[in-house]
Amino acid sequence: MKLIQSKYMLFFIFITAPIFAMDHIKFEKGQSHLDTRSRYKTEVIRQALEHTVENYGDYKITTDAPIMNSLRARKHLETGKLLNVFIAVADPNWESETIAIKIPVRKGLLNYRLLLIHKDDLPLFKNITTTDELKKLTVGLLFGWSITDTMEKQGFAIKKGNNYDGIFKMLDSHRFHYIPRGVNEIFGELEQRKEILKNIVIEPNIVLHIPAPSYIFVSPKYPRIAKRLEEGLELMVKDGSFDALFHQYFDNNIKQADLNKRHIIKIDNPFTLKTAPLDRKELWFTP
Fold it and tell me: Of 60, 67, 104, 110, which is the most exposed, with the fewest CB atoms less than 10 Å away?
């Protein structure tokens, strides 16, 4: 009798234990073999998933999708076959065509952009303090970058490129005057290319402030993954691991940028959405 009861107990435990389907996150691997920016993005996603294992079960992350810009990525998110998760700067198209998780993954650090310039042009930037003065010079940007639409809308002179690695080579060849890059990007990008780009330096006095929150966007075919990532990010914010990860990856960049000693040139972003969680001060970086 005891043996029969024991079997029934094991059967009951088995059928009442939660059974989860493994969530498969199909993510990007960066814009080139020199692109290290995806390390932080992947780690944010991984930690959000780890925080939700108890309620959602196991997961796996793959980065097999071909290199693509954000325009192509948004198209692929429609079906979720090659990609089902992507991190991009928010705009109305991203919010209407995908599931947006409105927690800025880099705490708005990308709002602050330094300038990569050709070393021969250092004197040109020395006395620039206004947007109008900056507009007299030519900026190099990529098709598909959110900042390209923003600066085009504001009347900047733009030289467009098609390739992430190629845009830096164009600056090195003096095809235009500058490339604005986020505090979280610029130092690593220059370090990775120091052996091949001999003429590029970081302009020492200016920082552009362009509102540009980056969110995780999920394919509409995967609402469960969107819900899981949002819950995981909120848990990270609550237990402090979101802040800890941000400081681990970016404190050195922030120190190098020395933003308080730079002149801020503010550029309005007409694509910034009013839905950004600006009231949640814990989500944002401020110098």
Answer: 60
Q: Is 280 contained in some domain?
A: no
pLDDT cut 70: percent of the chain above it: 91
Please check whether residues 102 and 223 belong to one and the same domain: yes
> Are 69 and 48 contained in the same domain?
yes
For the residues of 162-177, what is the DSSP string, one character each? Answer: S-HHHHHHHHHTTSSS
What mean pLDDT is predicted for residues 38-43?
Answer: 91
Task: List the alpha helices (DSSP H) in 204-262.
Answer: 223-239, 241-257
Measured distance CA(206)–CA(264) in Å, rounded: 6
As given in the structure block, the two tokens for residue 185 are: 């990007």
Kindly state whether residues 229 and 187 are assigned to the same domain: no
What does the alpha-carbon distance between residue 247 and residue 196 come to, in Å, rounded to a whole number? Answer: 30
Q: Has residue 125 got a pLDDT over 60?
A: yes
Instruction: Give the pLDDT score at 21.
Output: 81
- Are residues 93 and 54 located together in one domain of the fold? yes
Residue 271 lies in a domain: no
* Structure confidence by residue, pLDDT tens digits, 156-173: 999 999 888 899 999 999
* 101 neighbors 215 (Cβ within 8 angstroms): yes
DSSP 283: G
Distance CA 48, CA 37 (A): 18
What CA–CA distance (Å, rounded) separates 200 from 118?
A: 5
Structural domain of 133:
110-209
pLDDT confidence bin for 20, thresholds 50/70/90: low
pLDDT tens per residue, range 178-202 = 999 999 999 999 988 888 889 999 9
Domain termination residue (choose one: 209, 230, 254): 209
Sheet holding 85-89, edge to edge: 85-89, 214-218, 99-101
Beta carbons within 8 Å of 100's beta carbon, 6+ residues apart = 90, 94, 215, 216, 217
- Given 171, 193, 209, the domain boundary residue is 209
